[in-house]
Amino acid sequence: MKILVATSQFVKFANYPGGDDFIDALIDEFYDAGHDVRLVLPAFPEVEDNAALNARPVLENLPIDLIDGLVSARVLSFAFNEIPVYLLGVSVNGKPHQVEIDTSDAAFAAFFGSSVIEMLCRIEPQWIPDVIQTCDFTSSLIPIALRERNKIDSFLGRVVTVGYERDLEEKHTENNYMNYLGPHADIFIRESNIRGLNSRDIRIAFERAYSDAILNRELRDKAA
Q: What pLDDT was estimated at residue 95?
């Protein structure tokens, strides 16, 4: 299965307050099980500037059409333990522009979501994921961006989106993750549903959710 994991919480090199190593372990499990897994996250300066990761630019000035107008995105890439990783950042006047990334900001979530979808269309046209896994507020608008893209063409029409909801003690009041995700992702998994499971069983639970989402999409397509 081709799986794109979109997150701002990859602790191995993008840790921030409130992050954990859940996504790290899940990606390792996917890879070890033979899935074609890839990772996309914001271009945090501490990641982009980490010489050991050797992130290289692969695309500049990718036009992103947002409500407030056009914004240019840039994409960097590197491999981490043989897993392809993409970084999405902002480009201004054709040049890289590092900004302080606020992972609770709705405007950045909109930029990130649209950038992920356009990146797939431009950089990886031969690699279309079966599933896009969203993991946090930053990635929560990807299902909406995918839906809007599918109104233009059907290039990503068979991709399903699966959300993951963490059981946070303190949730955003205005920017509640599930308020954005709930009506749009094909299916979602709550942290409470997998609490106490080992990493292998967590991976199996996600695989089952993916299979259910893909089957539901196929049934909807046949009924249409």
A: 54
Query: According to the model, what pLDDT value does residue 30 have?
Result: 96
State pLDDT tens for residues 87-134: 998 876 555 555 556 667 788 888 999 999 999 988 767 899 999 999
Domain spanning 2-223 has what CATH number? Answer: 3.40.50.2000
Question: Cα angle at 25 between 213 and 134, to 5 degrees?
Answer: 40
- Using DSSP's 3-state secondary structure scheme, residue 203 falls into helix
Judge if pTM exceeds 0.85: yes
Q: What is the DSSP string of 62-81?
A: EEEEETTEEEEEEEEEEEET
On whether the CB atoms of residues 3 and 130 are closer than 8 A, the answer is yes
Q: Per-domain residue ranges for the chain?
A: 2-223
